[in-house]
Specification:
Blueprint (H helix, E strand, L loop, with lengths): L1 H26 E4 L2 E5 L4 E7 L6 E6 L2 E7 L3 E5 L4 E5 L5 E6 L8 E7 L3 E10 L3 E5 L3 E3 L4 E11 L4 E6 L2 E2 L5 E7 L5 E10 L4 E8 L7 E9 L11 H46 L25 H18 L7 E5 L10 E5 L13
Parallel strand pairs: 2-10, 12-19
Antiparallel strand pairs: 1-3, 3-8, 4-5, 4-9, 5-6, 7-8, 9-10, 11-13, 13-17, 14-15, 14-18, 16-17, 18-19, 20-21
């Protein structure tokens, strides 16, 4: 009977405690309850109470009070320079703000309202390092075994590391992994990958932690130079070489065409200028090119010939001689002119006789 009474008392006490805990949970609201971020990010927790008459709110990191808030006066104190509090959008609530969070902030985040209870959340701070494939891009013959080495350094916690070849993830059995921890508690993961050169591909090494939205990636190019141009992507190198040579030949051809066009244009311009000079020099009557022999006696003058007509004949013959240049005049010059009672036509006739003949000017 006594044992039954004791068991009944324990049951009643448990019910009371459970109901009290439910009441406290109903009064306090803390969010989020779990948060994972990267080192350097800004962190925000929100705490509110259904009781509008609370007095003091305490924010704690790993059981250490970092911010004290009064419902009436606001923030009373803050023990860390990058930790503060701001009025929440929710009714009767305040936000704990951690600017540029560090790994030392990782752990429990508690909101304590005096006289109402406490709610606790968890903060996880991760650190992003670097990832690098050693050696850079490489060229290999078809069928050769090519080795790649990747290292992910300075991560917390240990990062997951994966390989991708030509956009496809490889199973973990295709490469090996080794891990080490530095003095600051940061992780370094090394991996080696060996692939057979079958076609030109891009090789990627990816490292990531939970808080990182997109994995960090290091990429190199594997170029296979003895490929069979049968697959869709198996003619990358021949196609690139052919394209380069074609472009070079086209450029050379354009240069040759430009030079030839310029030379032809210069020749055509010169020919046009010569033709214009020739046409200009040929304006007016021309003398027939006849055999050269004697000389014209410009000093001979027949009696009865008017001076004006004689001077006109002399000027015309001189103009002919200037055009002919170094050519000698014809052997005989015969001139008919207007006399006071004669034919009103003037005729000039040039003919060649023996080189010993005497040239005369005769008026009819």
């Amino acid at each position: 009977m006594t044992l039954k009474c004791k068991m009944m008392d324990v049951f009643i006490l448990s019910v009371v405690l459970l109901s009290y805990g439910t009441q406290v949970s109903a009064l306090l609201k803390l969010s989020p309850l779990n948060l994972t971020v990267l080192r350097g990010d800004e962190v925000r927790f929100s705490c509110s109470s259904d009781n509008a008459k609370w007095d003091v709110m305490l924010w704690e990191l790993n059981s250490t009070v970092v911010v004290t808030i009064s419902r009436i006066h606001g923030v009373l104190s803050s023990s860390l320079p990058n930790v503060t509090a701001e009025k929440s959008r929710t009714v009767n609530g305040w936000d704990l703000v951690l600017k540029s969070v560090e790994r030392l902030h990782q752990g429990r985040v508690s909101c304590n309202i005096q006289g109402e209870g406490r709610e606790t959340a968890w903060l996880f701070v991760q650190e992003k390092g670097t990832v690098n494939i050693f050696g850079g891009s490489t060229i290999a013959l078809k069928g050769d075994l090519v080795r790649f080495e990747c290292s992910a350094e300075g991560w917390y916690p240990e990062p997951s590391l994966q390989w991708e070849v030509h956009g496809k993830k490889l199973s973990q059995a295709a490469y090996d992994l080794s891990r080490e921890v530095t003095g600051k508690g940061l992780f370094t993961v090394n991996s080696n990958l060996s692939v057979t050169a079958t076609r030109s591909s891009r090789v990627d090494c990816l490292a990531s932690v939970f808080a990182l939205a997109t994995p960090l990636k290091s990429s190199v190019r594997l170029t296979v130079v003895a490929e069979v141009a049968g697959g869709k992507d198996d003619c990358t190198v021949p196609l690139a070489v052919t394209s380069s040579l074609t472009a070079l030949l086209l450029l050379l051809l354009l240069c040759v065409c430009a030079v030839l066009w310029y030379r032809e244009r210069s020749r055509a311009k010169t020919s046009t200028q010569d033709a214009k000079r020739y046409e200009k020099s040929n304006d007016g009557p021309t003398l027939p090119a006849e055999p050269r022999g004697g000389r014209v006696n410009f000093g001979y003058m027949s009696e009865g010939t008017p001076d004006a007509v004689y001077n006109e004949i002399i000027e015309e013959i001189r103009s002919k001689m200037d055009f002919v240049g170094i050519e000698k005049g014809p052997d005989v010059v015969t001139s008919s002119n207007i006399s006071l009672h004669g034919d009103p036509r003037t005729h000039v006739n040039l003919s060649e006789e023996d080189s010993k003949n005497i040239r005369r000017v005769t008026t009819v």
